[in-house]
Amino acid sequence: MDIRDPATAKIGEEIFPFEMETVPEYFLKKAEVELHDTPDRRAQGLREIKELVKNDEHTKNIEFDDEFLLQYLRVRKYDVARAFTQLKAFVAAKKKYPLMFTNFRYDKIVKATNDKVMSMLPWRCQDGCAIMLVELDNWKPEDFTVEEVKRAYLLFLSESLRNPMTQINGFKVIFDLKSNPLRHLKHFTPENVYLLYHGTQECIAARYKEVHLVNLSVTFRAIWFIMKHFLTDKLKQRVIFHNTTETLLNHFPKAVLPKQYGGDLQNYNMAEWVKKAMAPEKLAALGGRPREMND
């Protein structure tokens, strides 16, 4: 596939909105080349993974939507055995951490995006990636607890992955690590850092193409000391450290970045997207439904 230059990418040409109903032809071709994704492979992969689901003691009583199963098939490039292993890891995490999958509160989660703690940006990168922005300094744990952060992160990733464009192209994440260590550091325990890694890498079917770190802080250095031991070499190579925010423009079109990072984006709000993500039928289907509900 051709390389798309962020410096010349324009909205309406190379830059597409985060919310999309169809996949442009360019990205269908990209999926075929990079993920071996074709109509025949999708049909065959769904048949095979559903057979594995039906015959495994940990999953046989769970009904999964096709769009959910396709996330795992695409992220593992239609290696059905690896896709099913990752799906089972998700099922195990849901059983081990039930509080992450229950008690979602719209007022809390919408506050996370309104306060710019974490946001899905309204435009995609020029290569089709969805962009998540996390601004650590805006997080006030007394208002938005660690458990609520976990729920919000799970919801944002899971809802984003309903979209085939995100399944195909993956995510880029910008972590703004400016932080008050007295406020945040105590929450970054080895258990929480491991859960962040395990959940995002080994359970949720997301492709992380780049992770950008800006405004490095004392808090981050402590987190990195713990987290780097969990990361694969492949993922470490995708972590990009920035000495200044200006260098983000080497990777992202100016049109998609907020003003404080040298971009043109301002006054964006994803509250309506959060509301749709928290529709009762979507929350009920998060990670599968008990099979007897559909019989």
Automatic annotation (TrEMBL):
Signal peptide per UniProt: none
Cited CDD domains: SEC14 (cd00170)
A molecular function GO annotation: phosphatidylinositol bisphosphate binding
Taxonomic superkingdom: Eukaryota
Domain CRAL-TRIO: 126-269
GO cellular component terms listed in the entry, alphabetical order: membrane
Listed Gene3D superfamilies: Alpha-tocopherol transfer, CRAL-TRIO lipid binding domain, N-terminal domain of phosphatidylinositol transfer protein sec14p
Name of the protein in its database record: CRAL-TRIO domain-containing protein
Organism: Caerostris darwini
